[in-house]
Structures are given as structure tokens and as C-alpha cells.
Amino acid sequence: MIPFTAPALPDDLAPDQRAHWLRRQATARNTLEIQALTGTAANAETVALFQRYVRGEVTLAQAIAQVREQMAQEHQSYRQFLNRRNII
Fold first, then answer.
1. Cβ(29)–Cβ(6) under 8 Å?
2. Structural domains in the chain?
3. The model scores a pTM over 0.85
4. Can you tell me the distance from the alpha carbon of 36 to that of 32, in angstroms, rounded to the nearest whole number?
5. Which of 24, 41, 43, 86 could form an SS bridge with 1, CB 3.0 to 4.6 Å?
């Protein structure tokens, strides 16, 4: 598992923006920890997506959708690999 390092909290945030940043940071950390507990460790791409979420560049729903798409592609590639091995 790639450890989650949250982006640095900007100094110029208003108090309400600071609270949102910290909430997103906690949500990202918790989401990645739950993912790891289910046996699917986060890779660098997943960590980068959740860093973007903390910075407010994507929503949580967008980050999760992108992770799901990435995982689906990885599983499909693995299934194709297994199918080819069975043919040979």
C-alpha cells in the first residue's frame, strides 16, 4: 500500500474553508484505510486521486468513480491474462 500523504493545508484559507479541507483530508484517509482493510491496497494513482479530492479539485463521488473504473480495468486485464494462460 502506498501511504496517504495529505497535501499541505494552505495558510490563506478562511476558517470555513480550513474546516472543509480538514474534513476532506479525514475522509480521504478513512476511505483509503477502509479500502486497505478489504484487501485492496491503494496504488499511487488512487492516492493521487484522493490528494486531488483533499485539494477540492474533484468531488468524493468523482474520486471513487475513477478508482472503481481503474479497478475494473485492472481486473479485466487480469482476467484476460488468465484466459490467455488457459489457452496455451
1. yes
2. 15-87 (1.10.8)
3. no
4. 6
5. 41
- Burial class, 20, CB count within 10 angstroms (exposed 0-12 / middle 13-18 / buried 19+): middle
Cell of 85: 494462460
Of residues 27, 46, 68, the one with CA closest to residue 19: 27
Distance CA(28)–CA(30), nearest Å, equals 5
The H-assigned helical ranges of 1-88 are: 15-37, 44-54, 60-87
- State pLDDT tens for residues 42-87: 889 999 999 999 999 999 999 999 988 988 887 777 677 777 766 6
